[in-house]
Amino acid sequence: MSTLEIKGLQVSVATEAGFTEILRGVDLTIKSGETHAIMGPNGSGKSTLAYSIAGHPKYTITGGSVTLDGVDVLAMSVDERARAGLFLAMQYPVEVPGVSVTNFLRTASTAIRGEAPKVRTWVGEVKEAMKALNMDTNFAERNVNEGFSGGEKKRHEILQLELLKPKFAILDETDSGLDVDALRIVSEGVNRIKGSSDLGIMLITHYTRILRYIKPDFVHVFAAGKIVEEGGPELADKLEEKGYAEYTTA
Amino acid sequence: MSTLTTNYLAPTGREEAWRFTPLARVGGLLDASTAIESVASLRITNAAPQIKLTVKSAQDLPAISISDDLATIRAREVISEVTHIEVAANAQPSEPLIMERSGLTGKPQASRTLISCGVNSHATIILINTGDVILADEIEFDLAPGSNLTFISLQEWSAKAVHLGRQHAVISKDATFNSIVITVGGSLVRLLPTVEYSGPGSSADLQGLYFATDGQHLEHRLHVNHNVPNAKSRVNYKGALAGDKAHTVWIGDVYIRANAEGTDTYELNRNLLLSDGARADSVPNLEIETGEIVGAGHASTTGRFDDEQLFYLSSRGISAEIARRLVIRGFFAEIVGKIKNEEIENRLMDRIDSELAKVEA
C-alpha cells in the first residue's frame, strides 16, 4: 500500500512577462488502487500539476510538498521519480528520432527494474502487451513516437505503463485526440493494468467521456490553479450537465 | 615533374576555400618548400572477388578530373605512384573490399588512388584510416555506365593527424555512387567529397557523420556539379561537437548547370552542439541555372540537445547520461545504419559513446 501525497503545492513558470504562478496550493492524496479524476477547464493548471510531479524543468516549485510514502519527491531528479514508482502518460509524447521503440522499452525497463529484463521472457512480455493494445508487431521497430498517429502515441504510453509497472500513474489528457475505438482500447488497457495491480491513478481530463470507460473513485474539480470541489463519480455527471461555468466566473 | 610549378600559390587564409581552415596546423602540406613524399598507402585487409589492386606509375595513370584544390594540386606534383583499384565489369562481389593504410610515417606525404568500377558492377569498398599522419590524399572514382559503388571511408586518425583529402567521383550514365564519410579522428581533417556526372540517369548519395571534440578541426566541403540532364543527388551530413575549440565546417555547394534539366537534388546538414566553446559552421549553397528541374532544396540546422527528448526519456527512469547517449546514437543512426557492416557499426557507436563520455567527464 503506497500513498502519493500532494500538500499546498505552488508552482510558477517563467514566461516572457516574468514568473507566473499557475498552481496556487494543491492538496491531493492518492492511495494505491484508487482512481482520482482531475477535471477542469483549459488553462486551469491540470497539466502543470502533472508535469510538476514528474519534474519537468520548466516548472519552478515555490511552495508545498509532494511525497511518495513519506519520501520527498521534489528532491528527486526526473529519472529518480520514475524509478521511485511514478509514471506520467503525456498528452504530447515526444519524438526521439533514431531510437527504436524496442530499444527504448528495454532501456527504460532496465532502468526501472534495476537489471536488464531476461531476453527470453522480455520479448514475449512486450509482444503480449502490444497485442492487448491492438498494436502491430512492426511497431516495435519504429522510432519512438516518430510519425505516430495520435492514437498510436497514446497506446505507446499505455504500453509503457504496462511494462514499467509504476505505483502511481498520471494520465494527462490521455483521451485527447482519440476516436471512440482508440479511446476504448486505451481505456481497456488502463483497466486491465489496474485490475492486475495495485496501481493508483491520477486521471487528468477536460471531458467526462473517458470516465465512461475508466471509473473514478473520486472526482476533483480544478480551476485557477487549485482544487475547488471534490466528490464521488456523481460530480462528473454534474459537470457533464452544467460544465465548468460556475467555477470559472469569479 | 618539378616540385615547384608556376600555378601553385600557397593559400593565405583569405580565400573562400581556406577561410575556415587553421593553416598553421596543416603540417606544411600547402607549403611549396616542404618535402612531401609520394606513397601508395592502401593495403587490402579483406579481399573481395573480382576487385584487384595494382600500383602504377603516375604517368601511366593520370588524374581523370580537374581540381582547383591547392592541396590536390600540390599532391599531384609530387605523386610518382598511383594505386589503381579495379572492379571488374559485371562483378557483384558479395563481400566488401576492406582496406587500411600502410607506409605512413607521420611526416608530410601524398597519396593518390583511382577506383574504377566496370560496367554494371556492384561493389562496396571500405577504407579504414588510422594512424598518425600528415597526408594529402586524393581518391578518384570512375564509375562506368550502370555501375554501383558504395564507398565508406572512416577517418579514425590518431589525435595529432593532419589529413587534407579529396574524394571525387565521375558518374556516368545510369551509375550510382554512394559515399559514406565518417570522421571522428585527427587534429585537422579537411575533406572534399565532390561529384560530377558524365551521363544522364546517374545518381549520387553522399552521407556523412562527424564528431569533433576538444581542439579538433573537422571540415567537409561538398561539391555536386549537376552538369548533365536527369541526374540525382542527395547529401546528408550530421555532426556533433563537444569541448573547447572543437570546430566543424560543412560546405555544401550544389550547382545545377543550364543543361541539367530534370535534376533532382536535396542536401541537408545537421549539427548538434553538446557543450559551450564548440563551433559549427554550416554553409549550404545552391546555384540554379535552369528551372526545368524535378526538385532542388537544402536545409541546415545547428542546435543543442532537445530538452523535451531528454525529459521524456528521463521520465521513464533512464538516467541523464544514458538518455543523452540514446539521443545521440539516435541522431546518428540513419547514417550509421547505411554502413551495413555490424563490426564497423558497433565500433563506431562505441566510439561515439566514448566521445560523449569525454564530454561528461
Automatic annotation (TrEMBL), chain A:
Gene3D superfamilies: P-loop containing nucleotide triphosphate hydrolases. The keyword Methyltransferase does not apply. Transmembrane segments: none annotated. Keywords: ATP-binding, Nucleotide-binding. PROSITE patterns: ABC_TRANSPORTER_2. Residues 6-249 form the ABC transporter domain. One of its GO terms (molecular function) is ATP hydrolysis activity. InterPro entries: AAA+_ATPase, ABC_transporter-like_ATP-bd, FeS-cluster_ATPase_SufC, P-loop_NTPase. The keyword Nucleotide-binding applies. NCBIfam families: sufC. This is Unannotated protein.
UniProtKB/TrEMBL annotation, chain B:
Transmembrane segments: none annotated. GO terms for biological process: iron-sulfur cluster assembly. SUPFAM superfamilies: Stabilizer of iron transporter SufD (SSF101960). InterPro entries: Fe-S_cluster_assembly_SufBD, SUF_FeS_clus_asmbl_SufBD_core, SUF_FeS_clus_asmbl_SufBD_sf, SUF_FeS_clus_asmbl_SufD. Residues 107-331 form the SUF system FeS cluster assembly SufBD core domain. This is Unannotated protein. It comes from freshwater metagenome.
